[in-house]
Amino acid sequence: MRYSGFRVIKEALTGHKGWKPVWREPEPKPHYDVIIIGGGGHGLATAHYLSKVYGLRNVAVVEKGWIGGGNVGRNTTIVRSNYLLDGNEPFYEFSLKLWEGLEQDVNYNAMMSQRGIINLFHTDGQRDAYIRRGNAMILNGADAELLDADQVRAEHPYLNFDDARFPIKGGLVQRRAGTARHDAVAWGYARSADLHGVDIIQNCEVTGLRIENGTCLGVETSRGFIGASKVGCAVAGNSGRVMGMAGMRLPIESHVLQAFVSEGLKPVLPSVITFGAGHFYVSQSDKGGLVFGGDIDGYNTYAQRGNLPVVEDVCEGGMALMPMIGRARLLRMWGGVMDMSMDGSPIIDRTPVQGLYFNGGWCYGGFKATPASGYCFAHLLAKDEPHPVATAYRLDRFRTGRMIDEKGAGNQPNLH
After folding, report:
1. How far is it, in rounded angstroms, from Cα 312 to Cα 123?
2. Position 67 confidence tier, pLDDT thresholds 50, 70, 90
3. By the 8 A CB rule, do 90 and 142 touch?
4. Cα dist. 47→149, 256, 375 in Å?
5. Is 407 exposed, middle or buried (0-12, 13-18, 19+ CB in 10 A)?
6. Quick check: pTM over 0.85?
């Protein structure tokens, strides 16, 4: 079934009796060409591109819970490609271009809204760094625009421009950036993958990897053994757990990242805004809630909940940037488990185990990378070679010294 305006009208006039389930609930087959562990955004995107672009249809996605129950539904929905380093910017610009055609590609309303993002700066040194980043973006085919304080004030008059500690001196804008509905992205990719023959197997936890003579033969699950010629792991904060089943210790730590939504308000924020003097970012959802977040909690955990000191820190950043936010009531909060790599950049690569592939280490950048991550991982699984925009995301780059330290924080995952 293809979705369209005409279909909506027809179903409305006939009592909505013609809708079909968004995807099937198949039983696992004994063997697949490819098994993808993880039914989040990256795993489902990989299945979509494997089946639609590369023609591999004997594919399964195994998910221990339900589709949309992990990090893909636990983020602040921001989509952007405003990166600096050559290892990152081409990849994220490729992702943004895929975002721009995503809804047509999967025939699903992901509520993609290119409302733009502005990164504020508060010092001359920060301005110079943003000029450098903007030039790098333009050189890689992205859009970037530097605004002075008056131009920022014209677009965002409610910000605290005269803060004695953090005066706003301008901002770097990417107009093509924006937001998308996180769970709708998962549902759209799942539906499209299913339509192309992929089996999406929910409530099927991977309990082990069957490896013989250095080759991965499939996965042990709560629903029995499932064989596969290739196994791809895309499980975000659980990367260490799953790859540990193969005897691998990854250069990754798991941390919780909290996010928040306020009560519904009238339209007040026209774009995504990030605070340059602290870690705070905010946008407004289509329902009116302010969606915002900040730093990760500073300890290792697999729990999808955080602690109150980080809540206080995030709210302090919001108050410093836009004091009016103090009048809004918090509606809900949640935590996602981040797979923080040593240099803050991801990994998409083969592993030393034959037939086992890994996609992880996305830190804060997982949601915005969803389309390109899936496309590049599908390319790797189908062709056994990295996609041209993902050649730097090697597993051995920490051993060879070719790190991609976008933030310049060194090899401390909790700082990225």
Report:
1. 25
2. very high
3. no
4. 45, 26, 9
5. middle
6. yes
Beta-sheet strand order (sheet of 272-275): 145-148, 170-174, 117-121, 272-275, 280-284, 289-300, 252-264, 330-341
Which pair of structure tokens corresponds to residue 80?
């952007």
Six token digits for residue 275: 């605070």
**Scanning the structure block, which residue is given the tokens 């540990």?**
244
Closest CA to 250 of 101, 372, 397: 397
Q: Using DSSP, state whether 245 is helix, strand or coil.
A: coil
> Residue 333: what pLDDT?
92
∠ CA 326-328-334, nearest 5°, is: 100
Q: How many residues does the chain have?
A: 416
Output DSSP code: residue 408: -
- Reading the block at residue 340, the tokens are 């923080």
Distance CA 401, CA 391 (A): 15
DSSP per-residue codes, 50-116: HHHTS---SEEEE-SS-TT-SGGGSS--EE-----STTTHHHHHHHHHHHHTHHHHHTS----B---
Tell me the mean pLDDT in the region 172-196: 97
pLDDT class of 293 with cuts at 50, 70, 90: very high
Interatomic CA distance for residues 234 and 238, integer angstroms:
9
Taking only the tens place, the pLDDT of each residue in 235-288 is 999 999 999 999 999 999 999 999 999 999 999 999 999 999 999 999 999 999
**Percent of the chain whose pLDDT exceeds 90:** 94
Q: What share of the chain is helix, strand, coil (3-state, %, to 5)?
A: 30, 25, 40
Pairing of strands 199-201, 289-300: unpaired
Phi first, then psi, for residue 200 (nearest 5°) are -105, 110
Mean pLDDT of the chain: 95
Is beta strand 224-233 parallel, antiparallel or unpaired with respect to 31-37? parallel
| Residue 164: per-residue pLDDT | 84
Q: Amino acid letter at 150?
A: D
Q: Residues 349-361: pLDDT tens digits?
A: 999 999 999 999 9
Amino acid identity of residue 11, one-letter, is: E
Cβ(68)–Cβ(37) below 8 Å: no
